[in-house]
Write a structure and sequence with these properties.
The complex is a heterodimer of chains A (about 300) and B (about 180). Chain A is α+β, with helices and mostly antiparallel strands and about 300 residues long. Chain A has a seven-stranded antiparallel sheet, with helices on both faces. The longest helix of chain A has 23 residues. The radius of gyration of chain A is 21 Å and the shape is globular. Chain B has nine helices and no strands. The chains are: A alpha+beta (about 300), B mainly alpha (about 180). At the A-B interface, helix 1, helix 4, helix 5 and helix 6 of A face helix 1, helix 2, helix 3, helix 6 and helix 7 of B.
């Protein structure tokens, strides 16, 4: 599977996919094709890396511009002046809107494609052969997002402040329901890890809540949360490696990446990193209970 | 709206105001004039407020606001400019370029902004919507009223324009060329 015949024409063809690849707009099969090519072609990887960097820079540069405070004031005056209803408490509305957002998020359906991409790293498949294909696929749900978003798109280099994350809007914003994970995870992991950013992202048509942290010696770690789509660790043919305060933890590894997973009623949660087995499990076990509780509360 | 009751300004503000920065940044870069951008954003908000009874809570307010803003911008352009389109000559020049330019290792924000402001508006708007606001292609297509295929080709050409501009700046600054992006042929 990792023997790929590629020539200059292949590079040209793959590069034509780069724009859509960077925007997460490729079909799963094509995404797979790009990743397979990248794993064997350093030239294209370099080109993609430079383009991803440019995309990030465009965003950062444009976001330096801020609207003058007078603009908001003027808009509010014009709107409020138009009609004078009795004023409701603004904060009550903010709460109602937050509830709507949670409802909307709850009704989002993650599209199950039935195809999980093949790993970029082709070594170390042995550990996967020990568990069932279903379990393997399930572990890759978390791995896919870490590899695509944190590593390939280079988000691990993009440090965002908590204020930035809290005030972010749009489809990559954590939003009021998940923003609380950021300080909680940072506090649980302590000073050995730095929170780089938290966002929502889409990989292979699946939505993720994604926190990225870095640690000592080049450690890059993702906490990846996604809504279940009929899957469950306890249904897959996979035995829990350990229990963290009553939460069963599952693990696998893929090349240099360690994956630990656990679940709530509605979510699959993964800790993926380049730490060693013990290190990754240690992080996962310290996050398992607080993250479980946090998500459990969201589930109501 | 809930039980057909009257809409409160506070309700509108709670869902619409959080997107003010995004709309303003887009307008600034599309009309390249801060005063005009403020007027356009203000008009867009007034239009949105008037049409708010048609907005369904829980749906994508940001995409809805962007669509209104782009209508305002189109109106503004029609009023003040001959709608600039890329001439055929320019297209073929661009497509026959022999190589992909290298992207400098260190890209200054200032250079990116300059490059962005120099590329044709219809490319710039797609780059802004995709790179800055991270809209899906389908949402961009709806916002701009064009097919998804057009979004993709404008985005690809817009990004290529950016890379060319940045390569030019780097050459002018005497920055060594790294991260070579030479097209193999």
């Amino acid at each position: 599977m990792n023997v790929i015949n590629f020539n200059e024409k292949t590079c040209e063809k793959i590069r034509r996919y780069f724009d859509s690849y960077l925007d997460n707009e490729l079909l799963v099969e094509t995404n797979h094709e790009v990743l397979r090519h990248l794993s064997v072609c350093p030239d294209c990887t370099k080109v993609l890396d430079a383009r991803a960097r440019l995309k990030r820079t465009v965003k950062r540069a444009v976001e330096q511009e801020t609207a003058p405070a007078a603009l908001l004031e003027s808009i509010q005056n014009r709107i409020r002046g138009r009609r004078s209803f009795f004023a409701l408490d603004y904060r009550r509305w903010a709460v109602a809107v937050a509830a709507l957002v949670i409802l909307a998020a709850g009704s989002m359906v993650a599209v199950r494609t039935g195809h999980i991409f093949a790993p970029v790293i082709t070594a170390g498949l042995d550990s996967f052969q020990l568990i069932s294909a279903e379990a393997q696929e399930l572990m890759r749900v978390g791995l896919a997002d870490h590899v695509h978003c944190a590593l390939v798109l280079g988000k691990w280099k993009e440090l965002l402040s908590f204020d930035h994350m809290r005030e972010a809007t749009g489809r990559s914003a954590l939003g009021p329901e998940f923003i609380g994970l950021v300080p909680m995870v940072q506090q649980k992991l302590g000073p050995n890890f730095q929170m780089i950013q938290g966002h929502r992202c889409v990989t292979n048509h699946r939505e993720y809540v994604h926190l990225i942290l870095t640690g000592n010696n080049g450690a890059i770690l993702s906490l990846v949360i996604t809504e279940k789509n009929g899957e469950a660790f306890n249904h897959a043919d996979i035995a829990a490696t350990m229990q963290a305060s009553g939460v069963p933890l599952y693990r696998a590894n893929e090349g240099q990446l360690e994956i630990a997973g656990f679940e709530t009623n509605r979510y699959l949660v993964y800790v993926v990193s380049n730490l060693d087995r013990g290190g990754n499990l240690k992080v996962a076990s310290s996050l398992a209970l607080p993250v479980y509780d946090y998500l459990h509360k969201l589930e109501g | 709206m809930f039980f057909g009751r009257k809409i409160e300004t506070s309700e509108f503000e709670a869902v619409a105001v959080p997107h003010l920065q995004d709309l303003y940044r887009t307008a600034v870069h599309l009309v390249r004039d801060r005063t005009e951008a403020q007027d356009l954003v203000q008009n867009a908000y007034l239009q949105a407020w008037k049409a708010f009874h048609r907005f369904e809570p829980g749906t994508n307010c940001r995409a809805w606001l962007f669509k209104i803003l782009f209508n305002e911008i189109r109106h503004y352009r029609r009023k003040w400019f001959a709608n600039r389109t890329v001439s055929e000559g320019e297209q073929s020049f661009e497509e026959t370029l022999p190589y992909e330019p290298p992207i400098p290792e260190e890209i200054k924000d200032e250079d990116v902004l300059n490059a962005l402001n120099e590329i044709p508006a219809e490319f710039r708007e797609v780059v802004l919507l995709a790179d800055v606001h991270e809209f899906a292609y389908k949402e961009i297509a709806e916002t701009l009223n064009v097919p998804v295929g057009t979004v993709m080709s404008r985005l690809s050409r817009g990004r290529k324009h950016l890379r060319l501009k940045l390569a030019d700046y780097a050459k002018a600054h005497g920055v060594p060329e790294t991260a070579q992006e030479v097209r193999k042929s």
